[in-house]
Amino acid sequence: MSSNAQKILNVAIIGCGEVAQIAHIPNLIVASDLYKITALCDISVQSLELCSKRFGIPDTFTSVTDLLASSIPVDVVFILTADQFHAEHIIQCANAGKHIMIEKPMAQTLREYDLVEEARVKNGVVIFVGYMRRYATALERLKEEIEGKEIRYVRVRDIIGNNKYFTSQSGQYQQYFTDHPSASAAELHKRIKANLAENLGDKAESDKRNAHSWSLLHSLASHDLSAMRDVLGMPERCLYASRSDDGEGKSWWWNVIWGYKGFKCYYEMAIDEVAVFDAHIEVYTNDSRVKIQYDTPYVKGLPIKLTIQKQLPSGDFSEQVVRPTYVDPYTLELPLLYDAIVHGKEYKTKPLDAKNDTILAKMVMAALVD
């Protein structure tokens, strides 16, 4: 091996479900100049068997503890497990000296974010939160376009069809299994209930929609709120929040108004049964409208585009559509994660940054007008 050869990072995958099969494992295999998957871990034996055979990864584990205690070389762990186990698995891996790429949401409570940050600092590891929308090249172009301009109004929208419409067309032929240990479902339910109580206090049980509301604000909404913060910073307050009632304890449709200094940001979010992915941020200044439009990340190669509308000095109306790259944000994250681990470069999606999305979710729940 020449002295100029790049270090290859050994990767363990914890959680071999949908996002692992469709995005992370295939992308890591293609990025073989930077990464090598050395181990898989999941509580589903069938998921392990599928991924092991399909992707040629022989070493598998059903326990994170067993994985970390093994002699398998691991530099970085991709944690793709159920949300309620994220913080526990992050801390466990950080204490073992492993770097981490964690799918959003990173944690479930403010206390968990602080514990993860403590583990990051104590162990000197990278904990990279996978907010892939924030690594889209078009988002950087949007920020460049509005820099120095006075913002008058912003719209943030994420109204998308059910994931099944997009994952079924991913071309990765993923499979879903339910051979989980019986105790795992009970533990998951216990954690969901405890986290809800910690986040909402006495209001946790006051409305049957609260559990589903918190879940949606921490899943789909976390993409939007994180990208919104990247562009605009944190709002001063949540002026108004409203949710739907489907009669079954679920609230799929949301309207929120954020108060920023000098302007308002209108946020609408929903999951319906139409196979359209309408996720965008549109910033209105006095002389321009700049909009980033996201497409589903589950179908590789769909462009994320920027549309810039403005009046020219001649008085003509101009509309420009910019597609900076066809490379998907999941792939764009990989060299940035590599540089953070190998070269010590800064990265923006750290634990305390991610904590702000839970703060925003709590602000929304506090501002609810039902």
From TrEMBL:
Record-linked InterPro entries: Gfo/Idh/MocA-like_OxRdtase_N (IPR000683), NAD(P)-bd_dom_sf (IPR036291)
Domain Gfo/Idh/MocA-like oxidoreductase N-terminal: start-end pairs: 9-131
Superkingdom of origin: Eukaryota
Gene Ontology MF terms: nucleotide binding; oxidoreductase activity
Coiled coil feature spans: 132-159
Protein keywords: Coiled coil
GO cellular component: cytoplasm
Gene Ontology BP, a term: NADPH regeneration
PANTHER family linked to this entry: BINDING ROSSMANN FOLD OXIDOREDUCTASE, PUTATIVE (AFU_ORTHOLOGUE AFUA_4G10190)-RELATED, NAD(P)-BINDING ROSSMANN-FOLD SUPERFAMILY PROTEIN-RELATED
Protein name as catalogued: Myo-inositol 2-dehydrogenase
Source species of the chain: Kwoniella bestiolae CBS 10118
